[in-house]
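Pasting as-is:
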Amino acid sequence: MAAGLILACLGGVYTVESGGQLFECKARGVFRKKELSPVAGDRCEFEDGVITSVEERKNSIIRPPLANLDVMFFVVSTREPFPNLLILDKFIAVCVYKGITPVVVLTKNDLEQNTEIPLIYGKTGIRVFVCDYENDDFSAPIKEMIRGRICAFTGNTGVGKSTLLNRLSPSLELETSHISKKLGRGRHTTRVSRLYPLFGGYVADTPGFSTFETEQYAVISPEELPACFEEFSPFTDKCRFRDCTHTKEKGCAVIAAAEEGIIPRSRHESYKVMFEEAREIKPWDLKNRPNV
């Protein structure tokens, strides 16, 4: 029996890394009975080309299927496509909920500078990296964050995820595409969930998204949502009412902080939209939600 990390799955065949070697394996039929599908990022045991068990996951996402993520890099472009902060904030909230560190990477700054995004997310404690392909040193802090971690790069279709990864490691040779002038977004070029060993860690390039429904990734209750906006935490205990929703109450310290600019207004606006969506979640959805 050997232990390893699943790097990819294609056509029911899993690529497992163990002891610096790669093995092709299939999964035991018992996984289907348990409605469990091993995915990239799973730590497993295997024997004679068969995965026999999968360790309990600390988290997972469904698009693409990945497990045990430590860091999620959100690649955001300054133009074509323009940033959608609500979608970004929804995904960041899911990461915080699942214990994944969110990082924002700003691309195409050479085409149109954007000072708003670094300012907004700098106030939240989320790290923001601005890509400067003319400067070889721009990638050093990104590579350091990858070291020793399982990471994924995601973002709206066409923002340049694969281009960024190719600049970080040209040996990847990931497929890229041009922006569709009609749709204002790129064609999907990432088709397989795969972890690439890079810089002492692992990296996944994920399919781009053009829309995002938070509940597809995590069902977060209205009571849990404030904790997913970590910049709220210094103020939530200072509200006038203990059951404050931080949306419209008088004496709300979170609202006051947003009005003063301590909490970015766009983040608070995103929170209010997400709170109203969370209120529509049915009790049985909360009861039957997955643990990761």
